[in-house]
């Protein structure tokens, strides 16, 4: 089962694809999509959709995990990221990919066993789980891979309880 994890954003959108097979996970591919700051917002969203379509076409993931949004202060940024997340969800749906969403705390809990883990702890555990030689950069990419691992582990737990 190929799973794509996505960390939504407007300037940088991280993505990571893992393979889950019988509870074992392995890295397939990862990267990020960058949009130019000076572009019209609609053009940034179109760039995001076009580049995500390319990734989906190359790797054909069956399931997706997209990080849920959490903002406490900057409403403008929240709206922009929410628009990007909407484009991501629509693009995934058009490719027939099943979508799940996870909060940052759910990702931390699944990957490290501690819902209040810091970013570095999540990155190190993701690196170790997938036997990577280094932590992928930028952070948005590492975050997206952790979201994919969270989904793989959550699927495993759901199967164990007979829910999938």
Task: Record keyword descriptors for this entry.
single chain, 164 residues, alpha/beta, Nucleotidyltransferase, domain 5, 5-stranded mixed β-sheet, 5 helices, 49% helix
Topology (SSEs and partners):
Layout: E1 2-7, E2 12-21, E3 24-34, H1 41-59, E4 63-67, H2 75-94, E5 98-102, H3 104-112, H4 119-129, H5 139-160
Parallel strand pairs: 1-4, 4-5
Antiparallel strand pairs: 1-2, 2-3
Helix pairs in contact: 1-2, 3-4, 3-5, 4-5
Offer a quick outline of the entry.
By secondary structure, the chain is α/β, with parallel strands linked by helices.
Walkthrough of the structure:
This protein has helices spanning 41-59, 75-94, 104-112, 119-129, 139-160; strands at residues 2-7, 12-21, 24-34, 63-67, 98-102. The protein has 164 residues and is α/β, with parallel strands linked by helices. It has a single domain, classed as 2-Layer Sandwich (Nucleotidyltransferase, domain 5). Helix content is 49%, strand content 23%. A 5-stranded mixed beta sheet has the order 3-2-1-4-5.
